[in-house]
């Protein structure tokens, strides 16, 4: 970096602040040891799953190994469940689908002119400034107050 700065004659009058920040989240769909979600018969693996296999952190290269191993586990368990499954309760499936459609339609029909992406970006800034690595009671309270708005 310093070579780039010198080559391009970029003036440095103050140090560049460098600090640790959250660069990704380890969220995802919660699954059990068979990669099954809380919805029986629905499985999640790879980047969308939160298996807990790596605790609170995971090196990027580990995701491929996790996908291969847990993908196989999920596939084998799903195949076993399919063989053992009784007939499908179609009315229960239809009721769930109807509920999902109703919730999506309600979201689509919401009134207002606020942008979800702007709110998300603002929340990210608020959380970084108020609840990041460098924080104190005042900054955290300011974040709580802003979120309460």
Question: What does this protein look like?
Answer:
This protein has 149 residues and is mostly helical. It has helices at 2-7, 62-84, 90-108, 116-131, 137-148; strands at 29-30, 49-50. It has a two-stranded parallel ribbon. The mean pLDDT is 85.
* Number of beta-strand segments: 2
Strand order of the largest sheet: 1-2
Strand portion, in percent?
under 5%
Q: How many domains?
A: 2
Radius of gyration: 23 Å
Mean pLDDT: 85
| H/E series | HEEHHHH
First-residue to last-residue Cα separation: 41 Å
Largest sheet: 2 strands, parallel
**Poorly predicted spans:** none
* Helix content percent band: 40-55%
Derived structural class: mainly alpha
Helix tally?
Answer: 5
Shape: extended
Explain briefly what this protein structure is.
It comes from Haemophilus influenzae HK1212. This protein has about 150 residues and is mainly α. It has 2 domains: about 1-110, no CATH class; about 115-149, no CATH class.
Short key terms for the protein model shown above:
single chain, 149 residues, mainly alpha, 2 domains, 5 helices
